[in-house]
């Protein structure tokens, strides 16, 4: 793998061949094409995002990959944290790790939307966490609070969306979870 353009071409060629094997499978979004985006050298691997009509994954291609069984899982460290990765193999490309972002891809109406999402996802996974950012536990609690307030989980996918939803929750929340589960006394009930 000499340079980024060569790698993008190799990845796209390998998955175009895979697409031929998948013709007629109902998980394909016909509005999308195969595109490798943003692959860059990261230690002894190349990492970027692959868009296909059936998935969008972060892909990590080790320079010298030992033979592994397809489907082997591991935890892979990226600048933003740890992610579960699955080992895959394509004859024209060799072995690689995949971290699933989307599958299937029907929520994308066109390729431009998928490409913009891929670029944003790549920035997120390649950016180290801000030390002042809330911990995973705090984020989970904040997201649960937002779900209780009626926000959908997909509304909280990005830190900016989470902060916005949290601000809305603070401004509009009139009942706490605790209060929701308290039983109010019923009128006319005798004791």
Give an overview of the whole structure.
This protein has 191 residues and is an alpha+beta fold. It folds into two domains: 4-125, [NiFe]-hydrogenase assembly chaperone, HybE (Yope Regulator, Chain: A, 2-Layer Sandwich); 136-179, no CATH class. The protein contains five helices and six strands, in the order H-E-E-E-E-E-E-H-H-H-H. It has helices at 4-21, 111-125, 136-148, 159-172, 177-181; strands at residues 35-42, 45-51, 56-62, 73-78, 81-90, 94-102. Strand 1 (35-42) and strand 2 (45-51) form a beta hairpin. The longest helix is centred in the N-terminal third of the chain and has 18 residues, at 4-21. The N and C termini lie far apart (80 Å).
How would you briefly describe this protein structure?
The protein has 191 residues and is an alpha+beta fold.
- Supply the number of structural domains: 2
- The CATH class of the largest domain turns out to be Alpha Beta
Largest sheet: 6 strands, antiparallel
Number of helices: 5
- Strand fraction band? 15-25%
The Rg value, from CA coordinates, equals 22 Å
Coarse morphology: globular
Give the strand order of the largest sheet, numbering strands 1, 2, ... along the chain: 1-2-3-6-5-4
Mean pLDDT across all amino acids: 78
- What would you give as the CATH superfamily of the largest domain? [NiFe]-hydrogenase assembly chaperone, HybE
Oligomer: single chain
Uncertain parts: 152-157, 168-191
Amino- and carboxy-terminal Cα gap? 80 Å
How many E-type strands?
6
Helix/strand-derived class?
A: alpha+beta
Binned, the helix content reads 25-40%
Give me the CATH fold name of the largest domain.
Yope Regulator, Chain: A
- SSE ordering: HEEEEEEHHHH
CATH architecture of the largest domain: 2-Layer Sandwich
């Amino acid at each position: 793998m000499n340079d980024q353009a060569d790698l993008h071409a190799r990845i796209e060629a390998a998955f175009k061949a895979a697409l031929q094997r998948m013709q007629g499978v109902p998980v394909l979004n016909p509005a999308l094409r195969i595109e490798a985006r943003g692959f860059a050298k990261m230690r002894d691997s190349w990492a970027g995002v692959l868009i296909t009509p059936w998935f969008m994954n972060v892909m990590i291609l080790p320079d010298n990959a030992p033979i592994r069984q397809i489907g082997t899982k591991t935890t892979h460290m990226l600048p933003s944290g740890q992610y579960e990765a699955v080992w895959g193999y394509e004859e024209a490309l060799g072995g690689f790790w995949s971290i699933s972002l989307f599958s299937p891809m029907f929520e994308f109406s066109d390729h431009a939307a998928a490409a913009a999402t891929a670029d944003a996802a790549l920035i997120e996974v390649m950016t180290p966490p801000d030390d002042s950012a809330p911990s995973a536990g705090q984020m989970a609690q904040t997201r649960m609070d937002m779900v209780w307030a009626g926000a959908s989980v997909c509304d909280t996918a990005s830190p900016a969306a989470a902060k916005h939803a949290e601000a809305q929750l603070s401004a509009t929340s009139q009942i706490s979870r605790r209060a929701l589960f308290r039983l109010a006394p019923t009128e006319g009930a005798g004791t």
